[in-house]
Write a structure and sequence with these properties.
single chain, about 375 residues, alpha/beta, two-stranded antiparallel sheet, 11 helices, about 35% helix, globular
């Protein structure tokens, strides 16, 4: 399969071997990242961004790649994460197909793709890889570690595994553990991929590719990334024009169906199915309660930061706001000046990617206070 690496991506070679939490190790592995701004002489103005499941390291335009990034409205000169003040590092997740080593990468031991020979991936493995990048850049302590969605989990793992690595933390639509609803949705997504005959136990090719499975997985995801309020406001019960339908008696009929189909088709060839499976499962396994005899709040209280902000959308059903409230409560119990903000965005889990009028001021206000 093809890896999808943006121009200008930089790479850090991980220590070899690089052991995984659940066993196994990588040899000759790398992590993809990009940077913005200038690192201060004392190294204290660095911010680390760790991402959700699918984004690459290209969060915003920079000198190496002027194309807009996935968080373009948030990162840059004069923006909420102001690169005139901050040196920003964004790391692509270990296990991804966007530059970091993952199931779609070559296994140096065999000369073939890892596929399902890739070790069992945990969020903590991605956190340790991100820590390696921070150290390689000569940063002793981050001003802040910022995590969105799955990145909120990764950020908490970074703080747990490397005490003192950051003075503050922003957790955006993230959580300290996976809830049953989100586990159930991701389980169905993975099943849709694995039941596609062309998945073939992970041995698919560009010509025999599990497109149907990936389409269904993406559709399920998109449904949970948005809210019922947004679906109703954007589409209502509007039907497609007659020239947009086909002869299939159970084919697309409503505009919302057409939107999901178009969204899924744009995604399926730009993310590797095996990488999707590994990253999805890593979220289900993540649970800070493992670090405190089954008590997630006690696990959060073991993390030491000076200040923290946990924010989310009140309409989020995938990472509901009570999880961000829990993050703030747990970090506060550990001594942090921690604040929770539930934003009245109609756009559900994806709000942090689009509702910049709400999320931008919250992030800017927190960072301005550092």
């Amino acid at each position: 399969m093809t890896e999808f690496i943006p121009p200008g991506t930089r790479f850090h070679a991980l220590p070899s071997p690089f052991p995984f939490k659940r066993g196994g190790a990588l040899h000759g592995a790398r992590v993809a990242y990009e940077t913005w701004g200038t690192l201060a002489a004392d190294g204290r103005n660095a911010i680390l961004i760790v991402t959700g499941l699918s984004p690459d390291a290209h969060a915003a335009a920079n000198a190496d790649n002027p194309a807009p990034g996935w968080w373009e409205a948030m990162v840059g000169a004069g923006k909420p994460i102001d690169t005139d003040r901050w040196f920003v590092v964004c790391v692509n997740s270990l296990g991804s197909c966007k530059g970091s080593t993952g199931p779609a990468s070559l296994n140096p031991a065999t000369g073939e793709l890892y596929r399902l020979d890739f070790p069992e991936l945990s969020v903590e493995d991605g956190a340790r890889a991100a820590i390696e990048v921070v150290h390689a850049l000569g940063i002793e302590q981050l001003a802040c570690v910022v995590g969105n969605s799955m990145g909120g989990m990764t950020a908490l793992a970074v703080l747990m595994l490397q005490p003192g690595i950051a003075r503050s933390h922003i957790n955006i639509s993230g959580s300290a553990q996976a809830l049953p609803f989100s586990i159930a949705i991701r389980s169905l997504q993975r099943e849709a991929i694995r039941l596609d005959p062309k998945w073939d136990g992970g041995r698919y090719t560009e010509t025999d590719y599990p497109e149907s499975g990936m389409r269904m997985a993406r559709k399920l995801g998109v449904i949970t990334y948005r809210s019922a309020l947004e679906w109703d406001g954007r589409f209502g019960r509007v039907r497609l024009d007659s020239d947009q339908t086909d002869d299939d008696p159970f084919g697309l009929e409503f505009q919302v169906e057409s939107y999901l189909e178009g969204h899924a088709r744009r995604f399926v060839r730009f993310f590797d199915p095996n990488c999707y499976l590994y990253l999805s499962r890593s979220m289900d396994w993540f649970d800070l309660a493992e670090y405190a005899d089954g008590d997630v709040l006690a696990g959060l209280a073991k993390i030491r930061v000076e200040k923290a902000l946990a924010i989310g959308a009140n309409t989020d059903i995938l990472f509901p706001v009570q999880q961000q409230q829990q993050v703030a409560d747990g970090l506060r119990a550990g001594g942090a000046d921690a604040q929770f903000i539930g934003l009245d965005s109609p756009q559900g889990h994806d709000a942090f990617l689009v509702d910049f009028d709400r999320f931008g001021p919250a992030v800017r206000g927190f960072l301005d206070g550092l």
